[in-house]
Amino acid sequence: MSEIKTQLVVLGAGPGGYSAAFRAADLGIDTVLVDARDTLGGVCLNVGCIPSKALLHVAKVIDDAKEMAHHGVVFGEPQIDLDKIRGWKDSVIGQLTKGLAGMSKMRKVQHVQGYGKFTGSNTLEVDGKDGKTKITFDNAIIAAGSEPVSLPFIPQNDPRVIDSTGALELKDVPAKMLVLGGGIIGLEMGTVYKALGSEIDVVEFLDQLVPAADKDIIKVYQKYVKDKFNVMLETKVTAVEAKDDGLYVSFEGKQAPAEPVRYDKVLVAVGRKPNGKLLDADKAGVAVDDRGFIAVDKQMRTNVNHIFAIGDLVGQPMLAHKAVHEGHVAAEVIAGKKHYFDPKCIPSVAYTDPEIAWVGVTEKEAKDKGIAYETATFPWAASGRAIASGRTEGMTKLIFDKDNGRVIGGAMVGINAGEMLGEIGLAVEMGADAEDVALTIHAHPTLNESIGLAAEIFEGSITDLP
Ligand code: FAD
């Protein structure tokens, strides 16, 4: 067994882990980064954010080309070459993981490939392709992420049952696919497969898709996709029977079909579970809860003083940008800086078509917490840019503190909503009020003018929409 002694070991090289390792190295800390994968980047780069966006880009081009028929330009039926699409997606992943490897090397962060488990409060054993390595560390950052939740009543070893990783492999385009779970990941993958030619059903146990977002925003999305997806709300899957000719799914609930429905594939997208229980963390004295989450304080410190944890395994929202910021905090605290993680808001985006994006306090949350709030909404049907783009279904909503007019949250649904959300996030973080946003001159004609216009509506300077 080889041995390494280091000031810092980071377990898991996802966005949280590599960001922490790079920041620590930049601050002069001798750092070792451990990951079971051959490449850095974790779930996000290898089987998450990035490959899904590469495929969503393909889907968007297909959908946009079809849409152009309404504007007088008719393209032929798309010829789908799955090998080439897969190759494109893999080249995107390759480019980014190679970049990370270069950045890691430049910073002299040592990458140890293998599965790591704690063997004591200052030791970790890594089992890799090149054998075992014992790592003795002064500090550790646990960044081991999460994995998809599987459902016990669904066949486990049937290749026709896939999770997000299986969906991203893009082995084929099933004629008919069920997306089990109407959250962000399920809808994004549904968008991809629909554009490639699958018929898609979506089943969601709750009464709206993307349950964390406000109902009015989701209503716009649901209306737009009603001809694209067959959505079954307040409905659950009770059984999946694997037969030679397909998977027969039984449903129960408000929109449940009376008879089992046959699908070629079922995509299970019911959430992700943290990997905290798989690390022998108890051997280091680190407390892991029943679900696999590790509790941390605002400095990302676990119950053990020199061991920190970040990313998906410390709690919701399970998002890459949250993990990155937490990683920076943990590294800086280890380097002796008085930093802590206390964002006012963390943006959420579904990169569907149209996109759904929200940040800060939602109306739902404001109601639950008894916050006195007001909203102002700008419908994109009144936006010149949206009309010129043939995409007027969108909507921009700002949420204000009723007492002082500060922006406390906001949401958008529509094309490019995710790109535009940053402005609302900045307003929330900076404590901007409606006047600040309304008086900021937005370029015309842009979709993000709708943010300024929503603020003007709140201000009362627009009483009637143009
Ligand atoms: P992860 O990225 O989960 O990485 C953890 C790493 O630790 C993995 O590489 C794993 O191999 C390694 N590991 C685990 N245990 C061990 C061990 N014992 N030893 C060695 N290595 C170990 N988020 C967004 O913000 N935007 C998006 O658009 C987005 N899209 C997504 C799409 C999909 C399909 C999926 C699945 C997720 C998406 N996410 C998105 C979520 C995002 O990927 C995660 O929030 C993010 O990757 C979490 O980062 P992390 O650093 O906590 O860990």
Automatic annotation (TrEMBL):
Source organism superkingdom: Bacteria
Protein name: Dihydrolipoyl dehydrogenase
InterPro entries assigned to the protein according to its UniProt record, in alphabetical order: Class-I_Pyr_Nuc-Dis_Oxidored, FAD/NAD-bd_sf, FAD/NAD-binding_dom, FAD/NAD-linked_Rdtase_dimer_sf, Lipoamide_DH, Pyr_nuc-diS_OxRdtase, Pyr_nucl-diS_OxRdtase_dimer, Pyr_OxRdtase_I_AS
Keywords: Disulfide bond, FAD, Flavoprotein, NAD, Oxidoreductase, Redox-active center
Additional remark text: The active site is a redox-active disulfide bond.
Catalytic activity: N(6)-[(R)-dihydrolipoyl]-L-lysyl-[protein] + NAD(+) = N(6)-[(R)-lipoyl]-L-lysyl-[protein] + NADH + H(+)
Domain Pyridine nucleotide-disulphide oxidoreductase dimerisation: 346-454
Cofactor dependence: FAD
Cofactor: record remark: Binds 1 FAD per subunit.
Pfam family, one: Pyr_redox_dim
MF GO annotations: dihydrolipoyl dehydrogenase (NADH) activity
EC number: 1.8.1.4
Sequence similarity: Belongs to the class-I pyridine nucleotide-disulfide oxidoreductase family.
Domain FAD/NAD(P)-binding: 7-327
Source species: Pseudobowmanella zhangzhouensis
